Amino acid sequence: MFANEQAVTVDTLIPECQKRFDEGLRLVGVTAVEIKADSTFDVLYHFDQDLQVSHLRVNVPKEAPVPSISGVYFPALLYENEIKDQFGVNFQNILIDFGCTLYLEPEVVKSPFCTFTFARKEKGKEEA
Amino acid sequence: MRTILPFGPQHPVLPEPIHLKLVVEDETVVEALPNLGYVHRGLEKLTDIRDYNQMVNIVERVCGICSCIHSLNYCEAVEKLMGLEVPQRANFLRVMWGEIHRIHSHLLWLGLFADGFGFESLFMQFWRIRERAMDLMEATAGNRVVISTNIVGGVRKDITPEQKAWILAETDKIENEVRALEKTILDDYTVKKRCCGKGVLTKEQAHQLGAVGPMLRGSGWAQDVRQTGYAAYGQLDFEPVVEYDGDSYARCKVRFREVYAAADLVRQCLAKLPEGELAVKVKGKPEGEVWHRVEQPRGELYYYIKGNGSKNLERVRIRTPTFANIPPLLAVLPGCELADVPVIVLSIDPCISCTER
């Protein structure tokens, strides 16, 4: 838990981001952390205003959908695509969705940074 | 007529591979989409098999051009997590090496920028001056690029009084030689023709699109992470370099002036360099999470680190400045002439090995 941190849910994530956007905060980055103990992800959003940093944290079960904030903060689309590639976080409605091919080749079916990985391939193909 | 043109992954102005899919209408770009992943190494994942001390060497290899600043950020983050107070001498030496890195990074870019216009001789001049910075690092740290001076708890190398005098003399020479070349590039008709008003990122766009470093400051934002006073910056006089036009020319001017600012910081460091220990003894294992950022030559760099009390960190997340500057790049390309794309791409000083880690 950081000093300037606020916990949000998937329902309040976009309104909170919109609030920060309207207040003139810059999106610094997005970080995904796998919580192995309870099979969830922490997704952290870092913001800056006049060198003061603040964070939003959303905890989501694996495979649960997370709304993309790229409609509010355009640069989030790269962070979200990266996290989707590496961890398999299920971001929904990314403005430009690379479909897990930002870094990975289409034939890669595992999320390489994740202990518990999800197969992206269609049913009936080889198990991941 | 609309056509899709590939820019990269191999291109004369790109030292590293990145692919941009350019949608062009006649000679005008209407859309640009990036394609990454050509040199992704998954370095963050190495925390699984390397302990927190060994990770210093790993993060230095994220980028050859600013290796020392990566390790500075990582070490400061781990030190914050473990509650370590680094000796003052170590903090000043970290800044000194960091600023020499900034000089060599900007000179490398200025050389590539000159080369981008076909100014071969100017390219060689900038890289000749850069050799002075490389020599400083070789003599003080034992290596030219990946200098491995930072460790968790302090630094592993010191400088002698003779080296101090030599560094001061070389820093003066670097600054004087760069000043002599500045007019050659900034007053040149061709350079102005191809940079002024090209790839304009407005002040509002720079903020909304998350631009960092010279890209942000070239658009009128006086924001530099060094203002937060990490390492020894809080004890040095420092003002961020700002330009207001937001075009490729403004970004070039920012980098020129940052070379002079870095030379000044090196001089201040050496003037105020305190006596004392180089490092503190490190006990225990990192536990908890920390977020820390520093200013790389290309802009703001942040590390998120999570430790679980074992020797291996649970998570290391690195967000590099070029990654943050890709969305602004995608925003400035539409509307520009196809012939201007290489210079605009080069003006963000893209570092792909950083971006892909």
Report low-confidence residues of chain B grouped into runs of 5 or more: none
- Global geometry of chain B: globular
The count of strands of chain A amounts to 6
Number of helices of chain A: 2
What is the radius of gyration of chain B computed over CA atoms, rounded to a whole number of angstroms?
20 Å
> Beta fraction of the residues of chain A?
25-35%
Biggest sheet details of chain B: 3 strands, antiparallel
Overall mean pLDDT of chain B: 90
Name the helicity range of chain B. 40-55%
The main sheet of chain B orders its strands as: 1-2-3
Which class do the helix and strand fractions of chain B yield?
alpha+beta
> The biggest beta sheet of chain A, please?
4 strands, mixed
How confident is the prediction overall: mean pLDDT of chain A?
85
- Return the string of H and E elements of chain B: EEEHHHHEEHHHHHEEEHHH
Give an overview of the whole structure.
The complex is a heterodimer of chains A (128) and B (357). With 128 residues, chain A is an alpha/beta fold. Chain A is built from two helices and six strands, in the order βαββββαβ. Chain A has a four-stranded mixed sheet. The radius of gyration of chain A is 15 Å and the shape is globular. Chain A starts with a strand and ends in a 36-residue tail after the last strand. The relative contact order of chain A is 0.17. The C terminus of chain A is likely disordered. In chain B, 46% of the residues lie in helices and 15% in strands. In chain B, the strands form three sheets. A three-stranded antiparallel sheet of chain B has the order 1-2-3. A three-stranded antiparallel sheet of chain B has the order 6-7-8. A two-stranded antiparallel ribbon of chain B has the order 4-5. The longest helix of chain B is centred in the N-terminal third of the chain and has 29 residues.
